[in-house]
Each structure stands twice: as structure tokens, then as C-alpha cells.
Specification:
alpha+beta; 2 domains; about 10% strand
Length: about 90
């Protein structure tokens, strides 16, 4: 496996880990039916004000030349699960 392929695989695993931490998904949920009663996606408890949505440059894509400065990274302001804030 080439270096870039290994990097991408590791990066995907890290991002999935962060998602599981944010959603409190644990090993006990492995194999759980996503259409069942234990895990589901529901509407947010409160609406997010559009002013609280931050757009920023993506991290670590300097190699992408003209795309490296595009504001294609979005997150909710002051969210504790965001690794790097702009």
C-alpha cells in the first residue's frame, strides 16, 4: 500500500472515531440495526442559527493548489468536537 493510501485509511479511521465519540457510539452498539430502537437519527433539539455555522479552509490540503483556499469546511461555532478552529 502506498504512503498516501495508508494515510487516507488512517485518516478515515480517525474521523470515524471522532464521529463515534461525538455520538456516544460504543463497542456495545456494534452490529446494531440502524432502523431499530437503540440507535437512530432524530431532528435536533434546537435549531442552529445560520450565523453560528462557520466556513473555513480545509486543513492539510495545500497540495490541492487552487482548491486549498476554498471555504469547504463547515462546523458549528464553539463545538467541542472540532479539532482545529479557524
Amino acid at each position: 500500500m502506498k504512503f498516501l493510501e495508508k494515510f487516507l485509511v488512517i485518516n478515515i479511521k480517525i474521523q470515524l472515531m471522532k464521529l463515534c465519540i461525538a455520538l456516544v457510539i460504543k463497542k456495545e452498539h456494534y452490529g446494531e440495526d440502524l432502523c431499530g430502537n437503540r440507535i437512530w437519527i432524530s431532528p435536533p433539539e434546537k435549531q442552529i442559527d445560520p450565523i453560528d455555522i462557520v466556513s473555513a479552509k480545509r486543513i492539510g490540503i495545500d497540495y490541492a493548489k487552487e482548491y486549498s483556499d476554498k471555504l469547504w469546511r463547515f462546523y458549528i461555532k464553539d463545538n467541542k468536537y472540532v479539532s482545529r478552529r479557524s
